[in-house]
Design goal:
heterodimer; A: alpha+beta; eight-stranded antiparallel β-barrel; elongated; B: 185 residues; mainly alpha; sigma factor (chain B); transcription regulation (chain B)
């Protein structure tokens, strides 16, 4: 039963609603004029966006040119070297990295197979082979057995005159055996007794170990042994130089993680929201710019998309009996999947921190903020904060590749077609960056 | 031009379509602003900003048939935003005495039935910000107290309390203007 207050409220509600339902008031001409002028303004934003896009393309074009120039110069350096190597080979000169095998470790009965195998190969590439399998090549410093000597004696001067392999000498210095994987080799593997390997004569300065001759009590005078502690290789911060300058090109593959805000709405009721795993959540971000004084200035273009499923309540209810005097009352709903996508262009600034470890190499961490504007008509502004960290790989003297995870937090809530729903599309992904260093 | 075509043209930022769209809704939306605002100047400010907001968000519309409600909802929300930004502090810092009505000798249920709309609007505009907003949202635009509480960032109890106090003050103001329940306009 309604109270007097409720009755009065209902009466007032009905009266006011009826009175104001079609209440209209025509705005003055000055207001119309202001609105028309304001509506013309978004068109002026276009040149800004176009110029930003042109700058982005220009930077990307410059990057491509820079890379192609470097590739051309790299080729001009490497080409003569390759030519000279070819010349050496044709002059029957053994290249330093040729597969030279110095070994006489072939038993007499395996020589036949080996000779047969080597005869089938092109002459120019005929090294003296051992039938020993690769595993036995690791057997070192065993004293030669009679079988070994016999085989070696039988082999004699095994190098044909036209071969470009080095002649075999009974040298103490032998390189590891490189073996063809032939069935014969496996059969005769046991016959190989040893391959004597020794290091090539390299000047190694050995530390001199001496004892104090005249010391009465050497133990008491000896310094206390220092405790050798292995230091942890923490990468250390490396401040960027004041004259450092670099061109930057980034590509980030992103996945959208949404926060959905459901606002009050008299017309729609949402029972449930779910986030399906879908390719519709994937996006990307292209950036180009420069770095100076440790700060990165980047133009960027982003494609962000996301998908969500909403269950809208309908005016149907279900009651399930749950034993005596108990039931579960449920409001039914209708599912609707909404996919949204926005294209953004804007400008960002980031601070990069470089770290370097002795053994672990170089790392980076970034923190920054972007300002973007939606490219679609009537677009809104976006302000995002981004963090990234990862590994820096050196491509060549001036070019680095930076790769690492990337997270972008969107400070703005994006309105959707349903006014009562707003979405905050945050991005998580992998960033790949190319940095071309140019010192001023 | 059909409504759907008009909306699509506006989404393409067709200036002619925008003008047609504006002409279609301007009177109705200014009416909404006049209810929520304290003064005509304030209403015109809200109206201008709200119109631009509508055009900024028109790309989000997927069902052009629901554009009428959508447009009105955006304008109401913009008026509330304006209120939240500009006058919220004023509302929170101002306390209003509860108006006592003579329930026994008067039947107020008939008071609003045949009132002149300009008098009603004048009385509503004179209400303090908090009362005016809640009365507009609940009595005219049909929002529930839970929704009002959420949108204004207040408690539901506060919304109910504001509505009752605002209602009583509105009745009092109408009485002060010489309007009684038996008067018929």
């Amino acid at each position: 039963m309604k109270s007097f207050d409720d009755e009065l409220n209902d009466a007032i509600q009905k009266a006011l609603h009826d009175s104001f339902e079609n209440f209209e008031r025509k705005p003055g001409a000055s207001i119309d004029q202001k609105i028309y002028e304001a509506l013309d303004k978004p068109a002026r934003v276009r040149p800004l966006l176009l110029s930003a896009a042109a700058a982005l393309l220009l930077l990307l074009g410059f990057g491509v040119k820079e890379i192609s120039d470097r590739y051309a110069s790299f080729q001009s350096i490497t080409r003569p070297r390759a030519t000279s190597e070819k010349l050496k080979e044709s002059d029957n000169v053994v290249p330093l990295h040729g597969s030279i095998v110095l070994s006489g470790a072939e038993p007499a009965h395996t020589t036949k197979h080996t000779a047969h195998a080597t005869a089938a190969r092109p002459k120019a590439r005929k090294p003296l082979k051992s039938a020993a399998p690769e595993k036995t090549a690791n057997v070192q410093n065993e004293s030669p057995k009679p079988a070994f000597n016999k085989a070696r004696a039988g082999a004699g001067p095994v190098l044909p005159a036209e071969s470009n392999a080095l002649p075999v000498h009974e040298s103490e210095y032998a390189l590891p055996v490189q073996v063809e994987d032939t069935p014969d080799a496996h059969i005769n593997a046991r016959a190989i007794t040893t391959v004597r390997l020794a290091s090539l004569p390299v000047d190694l300065v050995m530390p001199e170990i001496s004892y104090p001759v005249n010391a009465e009590d050497s133990a008491s005078q000896a310094p206390e042994p220092q405790r050798v502690r292995e230091k942890l290789d923490f990468p250390r911060y490396q401040p960027s130089g004041k004259k450092s300058f670099a061109w930057l090109f980034n590509l980030s593959a992103t996945n959208t993680f949404q926060s959905i805000y459901l606002l009050p709405n008299a017309e729609s009721r949402i029972l449930k929201v779910s986030f399906p795993v879908s390719t519709a959540n994937l996006g990307y971000k292209l950036s180009a710019g420069f770095q100076t004084l440790g700060f990165q200035w980047l133009f960027h273009y982003s494609h962000v998309s996301w998908k969500a499923e909403y269950i809208y309540a309908i005016d149907e209810f279900k009651a399930d009996e749950q034993g005596a005097d108990r039931y579960v009352f449920e409001r039914l709903g209708k599912a609707e999947t909404v996919t949204s996508k926005v294209e953004l262009a804007g400008l960002g600034i980031k601070k990069q921190f470089d770290f370097k470890g002795k053994r672990t190499g170089r790392f980076f961490a970034q923190i920054g903020a972007d300002y973007s504007r939606q490219l679609q008509s009537g677009g809104q502004n976006f302000v995002t904060g981004a963090i990234s960290a990862g590994k820096i790989l050196t491509v060549n003297k001036t070019t680095d590749l930076a790769i690492g995870p990337y997270f972008e937090y969107n400070f703005n809530k994006v309105p959707t077609a349903e006014y009562s729903i707003k979405v905050r599309p945050n991005q998580l992904g992998l960033s790949l960056g190319l940095r071309i260093n140019r010192t001023k | 031009m059909e409504l759907a075509e008009l909306v699509k043209a506006c989404q393409r930022q067709d200036s002619r379509a925008q003008a047609v769209f504006y002409d279609r809704y301007k009177s109705r939306l200014l009416g909404v602003c006049l209810r929520y605002a304290k003064t005509v100047a304030e209403a015109e400010d809200i109206f201008q900003e709200g119109i631009l907001r509508i055009f900024a968000k028109i790309n989000d519309i997927q069902n052009p048939q629901a554009i009428d409600n959508w447009v009105k909802t955006i304008m109401v929300r913009h008026a509330i935003d304006y209120y939240n930004q500009v006058t919220r502090k004023e509302m929170l810092s101002t306390s209003h005495e509860d108006v006592k009505l003579d329930w026994e000798n008067n039947d107020y249920t008939l008071l609003f039935s045949k009132l002149d709309i300009s008098l009603l609007l004048e009385a509503i505009n004179e209400l303090p910000d908090g009362y005016r907003i809640v009365i507009n949202m609940h009595f005219i635009d049909g929002y529930k107290h839970a929704e009002i509480a959420e949108m204004l960032g207040i408690k539901e109890v506060t919304s109910r309390s504001q509505l009752l106090k605002g209602r009583n003050l509105l009745i009092k103001k109408l009485e002060q203007k010489g309007i009684k329940q038996h008067e018929i306009f």
